């Protein structure tokens, strides 16, 4: 009987994890030509004291996003503007007007 309880517990845990993953993926919101979850691809390049260069996936997001549209959100994001400028420069993307 203990073995059956273990199997049930493992099955329930697998279902809960699958549901959590599905819910997380559905929280992405299209905003300014990019899904909000895709913006996470650039997080490492704008956080910390010495952020790494942006990845190719991050640069794709930066090139696809409508940065002028994102300006109101960027100013409230808490991201250091100098780190964001460095990311855009590394990706070959022009700064939006909110990042002179």
Which tags fit this structure?
100 residues, mainly alpha, Hydrophobic Seed Protein, two-stranded antiparallel sheet, 59% helix, globular
What this model shows, in words?
- Keywords: Signal.
- This is Bifunctional inhibitor/plant lipid transfer protein/seed storage helical domain-containing protein.
- Residues 1-28 form the signal peptide.
- Residues 32-98 form the Bifunctional inhibitor/plant lipid transfer protein/seed storage helical domain.
- One of its GO terms (molecular function) is fatty acid binding.
- The chain has 100 residues and is mainly α.
- The protein has a domain at 30-91: Hydrophobic Seed Protein (Orthogonal Bundle).
- Helices cover 59% and strands 4% of the residues.
- It is built from five helices and two strands; from the N terminus they run αββαααα.
- The protein has helices at residues 2-26, 43-46, 56-64, 67-76, 81-91; strands at residues 30-31, 34-35.
- Strands 1-2 form a two-stranded antiparallel ribbon.
- α3 (56-64) crosses α5.
- It is globular, with a radius of gyration of 19 Å.
- The mean pLDDT is 82.
The name of the CATH superfamily of the domain at 30-91 reads Plant lipid-transfer and hydrophobic proteins
Helix content: 55-70%
- Widest sheet: strand order? 1-2
CA-based shape = globular
CATH topology tier name of the domain at 30-91: Hydrophobic Seed Protein
Percent of residues in beta strands? under 5%
Mean pLDDT: 82
Main sheet record: 2 strands, antiparallel
Low-confidence stretches: none
Strand count: 2
Class of secondary structure makeup: mainly alpha
Q: Which CATH architecture of the domain at 30-91 would you pick?
A: Orthogonal Bundle
